[in-house]
Amino acid sequence: xxxxxxxxxxxxxxxxxxxxxxxxxxxxxxxxxxxxxxxxxxxxxxxxxxxxxxxxxxxxxxxxxxxxxxxxxxxxxxxxxxxxxxxxxxxxxxxxxxxxxxxxxxxxxxxxxxxxxxxxxxxxxxxxxxxxxxxxxxxxxxxxxxxxxxxxxxxxxxxxxxxxxxxxxxxxxxxxxxxxxxxxxxxxxxxxxxxxxxxxxxxxxxxxxxxxxxxxxxxxxxxxxxxxxxxxxxxxxxxxxxxxxxxxxxxxxxxxxxxxxxxxxxxxxxxxxxxxxxxxxxxxxxxxxxxxxxxxxxxxxxxxxx
Length: 306
Ligand SMILES: Nc1ncnc2c1ncn2[C@@H]1O[C@H](COP(=O)(O)OP(=O)(O)OP(=O)(O)O)[C@@H](O)[C@H]1O
Known about the structure:
There is one protein chain. 33% of the residues lie in helices and 27% in strands. It is α/β, with parallel strands linked by helices. It folds into 2 domains: 7-221, Rossmann fold (3-Layer(aba) Sandwich), CATH 3.40.50; 225-288, Alpha-Beta Plaits (2-Layer Sandwich). The chain starts with 6 loop residues before the first strand and ends with a helix. The structure holds adenosine-5'-triphosphate. Residues 16, 19, 21, 39, 41-47 line the site of adenosine-5'-triphosphate.
Protein backbone atom coordinates (compact mmCIF):
# COMPACT_ATOMS: atom_id res chain seq x y z
CA UNK A 1 0.00 0.00 0.00
CA UNK A 2 1.35 3.41 -0.88
CA UNK A 3 1.43 5.92 1.97
CA UNK A 4 -0.87 8.92 1.79
CA UNK A 5 0.65 12.34 1.15
CA UNK A 6 1.46 14.23 4.36
CA UNK A 7 0.06 17.41 2.80
CA UNK A 8 -2.73 17.67 0.22
CA UNK A 9 -3.88 21.02 -1.11
CA UNK A 10 -6.66 21.26 -3.69
CA UNK A 11 -7.90 24.53 -5.10
CA UNK A 12 -6.89 26.54 -2.03
CA UNK A 13 -7.98 30.15 -2.08
CA UNK A 14 -7.32 32.56 0.78
CA UNK A 15 -8.76 36.02 1.01
CA UNK A 16 -8.11 38.89 3.39
CA UNK A 17 -11.28 40.94 2.95
CA UNK A 18 -11.50 41.65 -0.78
CA UNK A 19 -7.84 40.84 -1.40
CA UNK A 20 -7.02 37.35 -2.70
CA UNK A 21 -3.62 36.41 -1.26
CA UNK A 22 -3.71 32.78 -2.43
CA UNK A 23 -5.54 32.05 -5.63
CA UNK A 24 -6.53 28.46 -6.40
CA UNK A 25 -3.36 26.51 -5.69
CA UNK A 26 -2.93 22.73 -5.54
CA UNK A 27 0.02 20.58 -4.53
CA UNK A 28 0.94 17.50 -2.51
CA UNK A 29 3.87 16.63 -0.27
CA UNK A 30 4.79 12.96 0.02
CA UNK A 31 6.17 11.30 3.17
CA UNK A 32 9.89 11.84 3.61
CA UNK A 33 9.98 14.62 1.03
CA UNK A 34 11.28 18.18 1.29
CA UNK A 35 8.97 20.50 -0.63
CA UNK A 36 10.09 24.08 -1.22
CA UNK A 37 7.43 26.73 -1.60
CA UNK A 38 9.18 29.65 -3.24
CA UNK A 39 8.00 32.97 -4.56
CA UNK A 40 8.39 36.70 -4.84
CA UNK A 41 7.70 38.91 -1.80
CA UNK A 42 4.00 38.87 -1.00
CA UNK A 43 3.34 35.87 -3.29
CA UNK A 44 1.32 34.06 -0.63
CA UNK A 45 3.79 31.56 0.87
CA UNK A 46 3.33 32.48 4.52
CA UNK A 47 -0.43 32.63 4.05
CA UNK A 48 -0.34 29.09 2.63
CA UNK A 49 1.80 27.94 5.57
CA UNK A 50 -0.65 29.58 8.00
CA UNK A 51 -3.52 27.62 6.44
CA UNK A 52 -1.60 24.35 6.59
CA UNK A 53 -0.57 24.97 10.20
CA UNK A 54 -4.25 25.42 11.08
CA UNK A 55 -4.11 29.13 11.94
CA UNK A 56 -6.37 30.23 9.07
CA UNK A 57 -9.59 28.73 7.72
CA UNK A 58 -9.41 28.45 3.91
CA UNK A 59 -11.76 30.76 2.00
CA UNK A 60 -12.18 27.95 -0.56
CA UNK A 61 -10.65 24.59 -1.46
CA UNK A 62 -9.58 21.67 0.67
CA UNK A 63 -6.47 21.13 2.72
CA UNK A 64 -5.36 17.94 4.49
CA UNK A 65 -2.35 17.65 6.78
CA UNK A 66 -1.45 14.16 8.01
CA UNK A 67 -4.90 13.20 6.72
CA UNK A 68 -6.73 15.74 8.91
CA UNK A 69 -8.29 19.15 8.46
CA UNK A 70 -5.62 21.34 10.09
CA UNK A 71 -8.10 24.08 11.07
CA UNK A 72 -10.91 21.94 12.50
CA UNK A 73 -8.75 19.10 13.82
CA UNK A 74 -5.54 20.83 14.85
CA UNK A 75 -5.39 19.10 18.23
CA UNK A 76 -5.24 15.71 16.51
CA UNK A 77 -2.07 16.52 14.59
CA UNK A 78 -0.38 19.08 16.86
CA UNK A 79 1.93 16.49 18.44
CA UNK A 80 3.24 15.36 15.06
CA UNK A 81 3.97 18.72 13.46
CA UNK A 82 6.73 21.21 14.19
CA UNK A 83 6.46 24.83 13.20
CA UNK A 84 9.18 27.43 12.73
CA UNK A 85 7.57 30.79 12.07
CA UNK A 86 9.23 33.84 10.51
CA UNK A 87 8.89 35.76 13.78
CA UNK A 88 8.41 33.67 16.88
CA UNK A 89 7.30 35.46 20.05
CA UNK A 90 9.60 34.70 22.96
CA UNK A 91 9.65 35.81 26.57
CA UNK A 92 12.59 38.17 26.33
CA UNK A 93 13.67 37.81 29.97
CA UNK A 94 13.92 34.02 29.96
CA UNK A 95 17.27 32.48 29.17
CA UNK A 96 17.66 30.13 26.22
CA UNK A 97 17.72 27.11 28.57
CA UNK A 98 14.64 28.32 30.46
CA UNK A 99 12.80 28.88 27.18
CA UNK A 100 13.42 25.29 26.08
CA UNK A 101 12.43 24.03 29.55
CA UNK A 102 9.17 26.01 29.41
CA UNK A 103 8.39 24.67 25.92
CA UNK A 104 9.05 21.10 27.06
CA UNK A 105 6.10 21.31 29.47
CA UNK A 106 3.71 21.66 26.53
CA UNK A 107 5.38 19.03 24.36
CA UNK A 108 4.73 15.29 24.24
CA UNK A 109 7.94 13.20 24.44
CA UNK A 110 10.26 16.23 24.10
CA UNK A 111 14.00 16.16 23.48
CA UNK A 112 16.17 17.07 26.46
CA UNK A 113 17.47 20.62 26.95
CA UNK A 114 21.12 19.68 26.39
CA UNK A 115 20.28 17.69 23.25
CA UNK A 116 18.25 20.59 21.87
CA UNK A 117 21.02 23.10 22.50
CA UNK A 118 23.58 20.86 20.86
CA UNK A 119 21.39 20.17 17.86
CA UNK A 120 21.46 23.81 16.80
CA UNK A 121 24.84 24.79 18.23
CA UNK A 122 23.56 26.98 21.08
CA UNK A 123 25.31 25.18 23.96
CA UNK A 124 27.27 28.26 24.97
CA UNK A 125 24.11 30.40 25.12
CA UNK A 126 22.09 28.31 27.58
CA UNK A 127 22.28 31.06 30.23
CA UNK A 128 21.88 34.03 27.88
CA UNK A 129 18.60 35.92 27.99
CA UNK A 130 16.61 35.76 24.76
CA UNK A 131 16.66 39.55 24.44
CA UNK A 132 20.45 39.48 24.02
CA UNK A 133 20.55 36.85 21.29
CA UNK A 134 21.68 37.86 17.81
CA UNK A 135 19.22 37.45 14.92
CA UNK A 136 20.91 34.24 13.78
CA UNK A 137 20.93 32.82 17.33
CA UNK A 138 17.19 33.46 17.60
CA UNK A 139 16.69 31.54 14.38
CA UNK A 140 18.61 28.64 15.92
CA UNK A 141 16.39 28.75 19.01
CA UNK A 142 13.33 28.80 16.73
CA UNK A 143 14.58 25.63 15.06
CA UNK A 144 15.37 23.91 18.37
CA UNK A 145 11.78 24.57 19.50
CA UNK A 146 10.30 23.44 16.17
CA UNK A 147 11.96 20.02 16.47
CA UNK A 148 11.58 19.70 20.27
CA UNK A 149 8.68 17.24 19.95
CA UNK A 150 10.35 15.06 17.28
CA UNK A 151 7.77 16.02 14.62
CA UNK A 152 6.98 13.88 11.57
CA UNK A 153 6.20 16.99 9.54
CA UNK A 154 8.11 20.23 9.85
CA UNK A 155 7.02 23.65 8.58
CA UNK A 156 10.01 25.94 8.10
CA UNK A 157 9.36 29.56 7.14
CA UNK A 158 12.69 31.07 6.05
CA UNK A 159 14.67 28.95 8.53
CA UNK A 160 18.15 30.31 7.87
CA UNK A 161 17.52 34.02 7.41
CA UNK A 162 20.21 35.87 9.34
CA UNK A 163 22.49 32.84 9.74
CA UNK A 164 26.11 33.14 8.69
CA UNK A 165 27.19 30.77 5.87
CA UNK A 166 28.75 28.31 8.31
CA UNK A 167 25.65 28.13 10.53
CA UNK A 168 23.46 27.88 7.43
CA UNK A 169 25.37 24.84 6.17
CA UNK A 170 25.24 23.27 9.64
CA UNK A 171 21.45 23.75 9.63
CA UNK A 172 21.17 22.18 6.17
CA UNK A 173 23.15 19.16 7.21
CA UNK A 174 21.03 18.77 10.35
CA UNK A 175 17.82 19.04 8.28
CA UNK A 176 19.12 16.58 5.67
CA UNK A 177 19.79 14.18 8.55
CA UNK A 178 16.26 14.32 9.97
CA UNK A 179 14.86 13.90 6.46
CA UNK A 180 16.86 10.68 6.15
CA UNK A 181 15.09 9.56 9.34
CA UNK A 182 11.74 10.04 7.59
CA UNK A 183 10.70 13.59 8.53
CA UNK A 184 8.87 15.54 5.81
CA UNK A 185 9.47 19.28 5.41
CA UNK A 186 7.56 22.13 3.85
CA UNK A 187 10.08 24.93 3.43
CA UNK A 188 9.90 28.53 2.34
CA UNK A 189 13.11 30.38 1.63
CA UNK A 190 14.50 33.23 -0.42
CA UNK A 191 17.83 31.40 -0.75
CA UNK A 192 17.64 29.44 -3.99
CA UNK A 193 20.81 27.53 -3.09
CA UNK A 194 19.07 26.36 0.08
CA UNK A 195 16.03 25.14 -1.83
CA UNK A 196 18.24 23.36 -4.38
CA UNK A 197 20.28 21.72 -1.63
CA UNK A 198 17.37 20.52 0.48
CA UNK A 199 14.26 20.11 -1.65
CA UNK A 200 13.08 17.26 -3.86
CA UNK A 201 10.05 19.15 -5.14
CA UNK A 202 9.42 22.81 -5.67
CA UNK A 203 6.51 25.15 -6.36
CA UNK A 204 7.15 28.77 -7.31
CA UNK A 205 4.39 31.24 -6.48
CA UNK A 206 3.71 34.66 -7.92
CA UNK A 207 0.77 36.88 -6.94
CA UNK A 208 -1.06 34.09 -5.16
CA UNK A 209 -0.70 31.47 -7.91
CA UNK A 210 1.70 28.58 -8.46
CA UNK A 211 3.43 29.32 -11.76
CA UNK A 212 6.02 26.50 -11.80
CA UNK A 213 5.84 23.18 -10.03
CA UNK A 214 7.46 19.74 -10.11
CA UNK A 215 10.57 17.76 -9.15
CA UNK A 216 13.46 20.17 -8.59
CA UNK A 217 15.57 18.89 -11.49
CA UNK A 218 12.65 19.08 -13.93
CA UNK A 219 11.62 22.58 -12.91
CA UNK A 220 15.18 23.76 -13.47
CA UNK A 221 15.63 21.89 -16.74
CA UNK A 222 12.28 23.04 -18.14
CA UNK A 223 12.43 26.52 -16.70
CA UNK A 224 15.64 28.11 -17.87
CA UNK A 225 18.25 27.84 -20.59
CA UNK A 226 21.90 26.87 -20.35
CA UNK A 227 24.17 29.88 -20.82
CA UNK A 228 27.23 29.73 -23.06
CA UNK A 229 29.35 32.86 -22.76
CA UNK A 230 32.60 33.97 -24.36
CA UNK A 231 34.59 37.01 -25.33
CA UNK A 232 35.18 37.23 -29.07
CA UNK A 233 37.57 39.57 -30.87
CA UNK A 234 36.36 43.08 -31.62
CA UNK A 235 35.05 42.28 -35.10
CA UNK A 236 32.86 39.37 -33.91
CA UNK A 237 29.43 40.62 -32.93
CA UNK A 238 26.18 38.71 -32.46
CA UNK A 239 25.13 39.22 -36.08
CA UNK A 240 28.24 37.38 -37.31
CA UNK A 241 27.33 34.20 -35.47
CA UNK A 242 25.47 31.43 -37.30
CA UNK A 243 21.84 30.74 -36.36
CA UNK A 244 21.65 28.22 -33.53
CA UNK A 245 18.26 26.46 -33.65
CA UNK A 246 16.27 27.03 -30.44
CA UNK A 247 18.85 29.47 -29.03
CA UNK A 248 19.09 33.24 -28.69
CA UNK A 249 22.16 35.43 -28.50
CA UNK A 250 22.60 38.45 -26.27
CA UNK A 251 25.46 40.95 -26.27
CA UNK A 252 26.66 42.26 -22.94
CA UNK A 253 29.51 44.61 -23.75
CA UNK A 254 32.36 42.51 -25.12
CA UNK A 255 30.74 39.30 -23.85
CA UNK A 256 28.40 37.29 -26.05
CA UNK A 257 25.90 35.06 -24.31
CA UNK A 258 23.98 32.25 -26.01
CA UNK A 259 20.92 30.97 -24.16
CA UNK A 260 19.99 27.51 -25.29
CA UNK A 261 17.78 24.59 -24.40
CA UNK A 262 20.07 22.30 -26.46
CA UNK A 263 23.50 22.98 -24.95
CA UNK A 264 25.36 20.09 -26.57
CA UNK A 265 24.20 20.85 -30.14
CA UNK A 266 24.68 24.60 -29.70
CA UNK A 267 28.17 24.20 -28.28
CA UNK A 268 29.19 21.89 -31.09
CA UNK A 269 27.86 24.33 -33.69
CA UNK A 270 29.65 27.24 -32.00
CA UNK A 271 33.01 25.45 -31.80
CA UNK A 272 32.73 24.28 -35.42
CA UNK A 273 31.94 27.82 -36.57
CA UNK A 274 34.82 29.27 -34.53
CA UNK A 275 37.25 26.72 -35.93
CA UNK A 276 36.16 27.28 -39.54
CA UNK A 277 36.31 31.07 -39.20
CA UNK A 278 39.49 31.23 -37.09
CA UNK A 279 37.67 33.07 -34.30
CA UNK A 280 39.16 32.82 -30.81
CA UNK A 281 36.59 32.29 -28.04
CA UNK A 282 38.17 33.79 -24.91
CA UNK A 283 36.88 32.85 -21.44
CA UNK A 284 34.48 30.29 -22.92
CA UNK A 285 32.10 29.17 -20.19
CA UNK A 286 29.08 26.87 -20.13
CA UNK A 287 26.78 27.35 -17.16
CA UNK A 288 23.83 25.05 -16.53
CA UNK A 289 20.57 26.72 -15.52
CA UNK A 290 20.03 27.15 -11.80
CA UNK A 291 16.90 27.54 -9.73
CA UNK A 292 17.78 31.22 -9.40
CA UNK A 293 17.55 31.64 -13.20
CA UNK A 294 14.07 30.06 -13.12
CA UNK A 295 13.03 32.27 -10.22
CA UNK A 296 14.27 35.44 -11.92
CA UNK A 297 12.39 34.45 -15.06
CA UNK A 298 9.18 34.01 -13.02
CA UNK A 299 9.70 37.37 -11.30
CA UNK A 300 10.33 39.12 -14.65
CA UNK A 301 7.18 37.62 -16.15
CA UNK A 302 5.22 38.67 -13.05
CA UNK A 303 6.45 42.26 -13.41
CA UNK A 304 5.52 42.23 -17.08
CA UNK A 305 1.92 41.24 -16.21
CA UNK A 306 1.48 44.01 -13.62
N1 LIG B 1 -3.64 39.66 7.70
C1 LIG B 1 -3.55 40.18 6.47
N2 LIG B 1 -4.43 41.10 6.05
C2 LIG B 1 -4.37 41.62 4.79
N3 LIG B 1 -3.43 41.28 3.88
C3 LIG B 1 -2.53 40.37 4.26
C4 LIG B 1 -2.53 39.78 5.57
N4 LIG B 1 -1.50 38.91 5.64
C5 LIG B 1 -0.87 38.95 4.44
N5 LIG B 1 -1.49 39.83 3.61
C6 LIG B 1 -1.12 40.12 2.21
O1 LIG B 1 -1.20 38.90 1.49
C7 LIG B 1 -0.16 38.82 0.53
C8 LIG B 1 0.62 37.54 0.75
O2 LIG B 1 1.35 37.66 1.94
P1 LIG B 1 2.30 36.49 2.47
O3 LIG B 1 2.85 36.92 3.79
O4 LIG B 1 1.57 35.21 2.41
O5 LIG B 1 3.44 36.51 1.34
P2 LIG B 1 4.86 35.78 1.31
O6 LIG B 1 4.90 35.05 0.01
O7 LIG B 1 5.08 34.98 2.53
O8 LIG B 1 5.83 37.03 1.26
P3 LIG B 1 7.36 37.26 1.80
O9 LIG B 1 8.26 36.50 0.89
O10 LIG B 1 7.51 38.73 1.60
O11 LIG B 1 7.41 36.82 3.23
C9 LIG B 1 0.67 40.08 0.69
O12 LIG B 1 0.27 41.01 -0.30
C10 LIG B 1 0.31 40.59 2.08
O13 LIG B 1 0.41 41.99 2.15
